[in-house]
Amino acid sequence: MKYRLFAGLTAALSGCSGTAAPPPQGQPPAPQACTTLGCTSGLELQLVRATPWPPGTYRITLRVDDKSTSCEGKLPLEPCDRGPTFHCTDASLSVAESGCALPADQHAITGLSSKATQAAKVSLAIEHQGSIQASAQLSPTFQTVQPNGPGCEPVCETAAMRLQLR
Q: Rounded to the nearest 5 degrees, what angle is found at the Cα of 43, between the Cα atoms of 39 and 49?
């Protein structure tokens, strides 16, 4: 009886590491304890500026290999209760907006989220008032992530990049 309690306690404490001792012969294996952390597959681009974003209309185009998707919107952002200001041509891309409850000079575009889980090459173009304000050629590295440990769901393919804009 002491062995079963110890084995159960060891399995519970080891989480998903799979380091618990095997059960005695003839006994079913102890259930694997997994936490419930989540993750999201895709490409995350964090956009950082040293100065405030200028007001006006914006068009952001992200090309992942041979597929191009664009989003359009404006700064200052719409009031928070109206929902997102930026709208994309495809649901596989979204714009992270920040500051809708703050003064207009603090409104910002803080990032992009793409549902792409692999890419050989990625290009980004940000237009402000019809002129290219920033562009970048990127080579993201995707990693398999299991936030709850080996053998536990979910399994995500992610890449994250931070882009410093002028």
A: 110
Q: What is the C-alpha separation between 39 and 31, in angstroms, rounded?
A: 23
Strands 108-114 and 42-49: what pairing?
A: antiparallel
Residue 20: is it exposed, middle or buried by C-beta count within 10 angstroms (0-12/13-18/19+)? buried
Whole-number Cα distances in Å, 100 to 38, 45, 69, 97, 144: 27, 20, 24, 8, 34
Amino acid residing at 94: S
* Residue 85 DSSP SS3: coil
Q: pLDDT tens-digit profile of 42-52?
A: 999 999 999 99
pLDDT in tens, 89-118: 999 999 999 999 999 999 999 999 999 999
Exposure pattern of 21-55 as b/e (b: 16+ CB <10 Å)?
Answer: eeeeeeeeebebbbeeeeeebbbbbebebeeebee
The structure tokens 């990127």 sit at: 138
